[in-house]
Write a structure and sequence with these properties.
single chain; alpha+beta; 7-stranded antiparallel β-sheet; 3 helices; about 25% helix; globular
Length: about 150
Amino acid sequence: MLEGKKSSRNDRQDSPVPEALGRLLMLLGNRVEVETMDRIWIFPPLVRGRKEWGLVAASFRAGDPALRNLVTAKYAAELTGHGMTFEPEFMSEGVAPPERLPSVMDGVVRRSDLQLGVAREEVIAGDLESFARLLQEYSGGSQAVDPVAQ
């Protein structure tokens, strides 16, 4: 089991790789159509020394308006003497009614061996500007953010 300091968006200065979560969100936005994105849940990253692990879950409108596709994205990042290593992983988790997703996120926290904290939920509702603001927040303003750039 990983144990480490849990950080929040307001505590990113303690992160050894503060750009990692922003990079994961950018990759997520490049892999899916942001216009179909409904919500994002950002779990507080776990930090141990120069290593960091993070998890994001996102729901997307499915063909059936009563359902959402759920995708998780996680990363492992480390600050080394040669820069940052960054290993993202994306996984399709299935389809569920949107009203069930908050309880699914609670279950992720309860079942995780990573001792995850409570996720920050952000409503995107297919709005490119909402997603771009989230990217800007997590990129620390260090890079231009264009969620539709592929």
